[in-house]
Amino acid sequence: MKLRKATRGQLKWHNRQLILRAIYDGIADNRAALSQETGLAKPTVSELVAELLQEGLLIEDGLGESTDSGGKRPTIIKFVPNARQVIGISVTADRIFGILSNLNGDISARHYANLNNATQQNAIDILKQVVNGLIAQLDAPLLCIGVGVTGVVDSANGIIHASQALGWFNIELANELHQHYQKPVYIGNNTELTAIAQFAFGKQAHDSTRNLMVLLVNDGVEIGVAWENATYHHGGDIGFLHPSVENAHPLNDSLSWNAIIQKCEALRAQYPNSILPTEGLSYLHIKYAMQHSDALAIALSDQIIQQVSHIVLWAIAFLHPSHVTLAGTIVDLGDTLMSSVISQVQQSLPQAQSVTFSMAHTTNMSALGAVALAIQKELDVI
Amino acid sequence: MKRTHRLGIVTNNPNQAFQRDIILGASTTAESNGYEVQILLAPQRTRPNFTVEGLSGMLVITNCVPDDYLVQIYKTGLPLSLASHQLDSIPVPSLSPDNFEGVQLLVQHLVETCQRKRIAFIQGDLSQNDGIRRDMTFRRELMRYNLPILPDFFLKGDFEPVVAGQSLRQLLKRRQDFDAIVASDYLMALEAIVALRELGLRVPEDVSVVGFGDAPEAEIAGLTTVAADVIELGRRAARQLMGQIEGLEISGLTLISSELLIRKTSC
After folding, report:
1. Contact B144/A110, CB-based, under 8 Å?
2. Chain A residues touching residue B248 (CB < 8 angstroms)
3. How many beta carbons lie within 10 A of that of residue A290, not counting itself?
4. Which of B244, B200, B223, B182 is nearest to B35 (CA)?
């Protein structure tokens, strides 16, 4: 393969990111330390720092201590998280949820709109109206927009290939939004973004987890991964897979929320005294009824937990994550779900003893992941 | 010369704490952006008799005017924002405290910190979104903690302290086997404390009382509440409305976060 030489512009952008990242990560806080840590010449550092100060992304904040050998006290340079804001959006089957965040992931505004079975073009219009709702609340210049969508997403090219839940196919969403807002737009799969958010702003940002897998179960079934502290990430719909030889049906036929409702109704004849409602059923109803020894709820949850455990086992065997997060509305089943899955995984796969588990509600997390993806792509500091 | 824009803020009572703080936040933000503000009174929840001529946009606080009037205004193309009210029939944007988060925080506090297990709920006006959502979330949170959901423990309140007081006094005649009350707003919670004390029940030793929303009278009474920053809600409402006037097409709901304020009436 023939290697192409980096252009002057690319080289400058790369050097600028080195400086920003060193300050953002707390590795260096003055020009001399930046030169030492990045290997860039002092005049180059000074020029780039001046540019970043001018843009407001960095600020000079007093004088530091002089070195042991004495000399002039260095000017301390800090990252300014409020210098720009980022919009993060999560699109699911029934709702478009957005947040306005600074560069540290601190949320200053939340805005959502329901989709109410909107057509594809209407849904994209509603997406823009949610973005507009957040633009109206900006406290600083908008840096970029991140969007998470349920389904198969080509993140590199900004294309939604297939979102069954939304009925969206082959949409160049990033390009359409970029044309409309004249700002960089990045898109990803919602579950993948949930994983990224945990590395960027969640608990996993502070512990030793390196490879994180998110299993999302709500309207459908998705897996997202973020490997090596989110250096690599990917996610997608697995609802069409057949992970079990005993079960000839794809996962969506047993675990999507529509499938759970149908299963509940099919079982109801056997358990006529069940307290589960015939309308407006939720995982919380199932959890509550289980705790009141409702036979239908117990039968239903046994099947759900068995299916989820099977997928988790299958995914651990294939992907070897160090941490698994269960996400989506299914987490309303609570500790029963978590403890049963952990127990089945540890019984069936002793080598997975070191895998840790957590649960997460995803709407906020995938929107926050969209923010993290956008900041990562735009500034390379996450 | 730059044309001056004028915002109309419609309210049933500009002196009540919630409305007053929204007006304060909205007016400050609008005026600092060069807008004039006009307060429009609609005290009876009937079709108002003020004119919208000359207004650049209108912020309506709660459901102080009939929904069909809002639909009519929306159809004229006048930018419109609703604070603490929503309409499903038209895509007019609105702002609201996060009811889901607020009720979650209250129940979590009562169950996990105060160890309460039998909680009654004083409902708000169930024709208003805030009333409906707080009621719905309360039921969900009872399920989450596996607590009893007894029809007797859901009391009519309508966001009216008098109605709330009557409902609670009737319940107290029948049964007193509850250990906490969540009220859908702080005024009804304050009335609940009065009704409990009339019967010699101690707050919080015998019954914890918490409510949604905050005001100086709640603070003086030591009421544990969840409260959104209502002045901030007003600021955000002005921004939403100004955004529309400046050409942004907006639909949906802006949520304002709620904070748990632990005082003396919970535990």
Report:
1. no
2. 132-133, 135-136
3. 22
4. B244
Q: Are B124 and B159 in contact (CB under 8 A)?
A: yes
- Cα A229 from Cα A233, distance rounded (Å): 9
Q: Mean pLDDT of all residues in chain B?
A: 93
Mark yes or no for CB contact A285/B143 under 8 Å: yes
List chain A residues with CB under 8 Å of B143. Answer: 284-285, 287-288
Where in chain A is CATH 3.30.420.40? Answer: 83-205+365-379, 212-360
Task: Tell how strand A221-227 and strand A212-217 pair up.
Answer: antiparallel
State pTM to two decimals.
Answer: 0.89
Are residues A110 and B98, on separate chains, in Cβ contact within 8 Å?
Answer: yes
Token couple for B50: 């003020």
For residue range A116-166, list pLDDT tens digits in order: 888 888 999 999 999 999 999 999 999 999 999 988 999 999 999 998 888
ipTM of the complex: 0.87
CATH number of A8-79: 1.10.10.10
CA distance A367 to chain B (A): 15
Determine which of A284, A293, A331, A332 to mutate to test the interface with B (most B C-beta atoms within 10 Å): A284
CB A361 within 8 A of CB A327: yes
Cα separation, A144 vs A183, in Å, equals 6
pLDDT at residue B177 greater than cutoff 50: yes
Q: Kindly list the structural domains of chain B, giving each domain's residue range(s) and its CATH number in brackets, ordered by start.
A: 6-97+229-257 (3.40.50.2300), 99-227 (3.40.50.2300)
Alpha-carbon span B18 to A24, nearest angstrom: 41
**What residues in B contact A287, CB-CB < 8 Å?**
143-144, 146
The pair of three-digit structure tokens given for residue B249, joined into one six-digit string: 């097409």
Q: Which residues contact A27 (CB under 8 A, 6 or more apart)?
A: A21, A33, A37
Cβ distance A288 to B250 less than 8 Å, yes or no, reads no
Query: Which of A117-121, B20-24, B122-126 is the least confident region?
Result: A117-121
Tokens 């046994």 belong to: A302
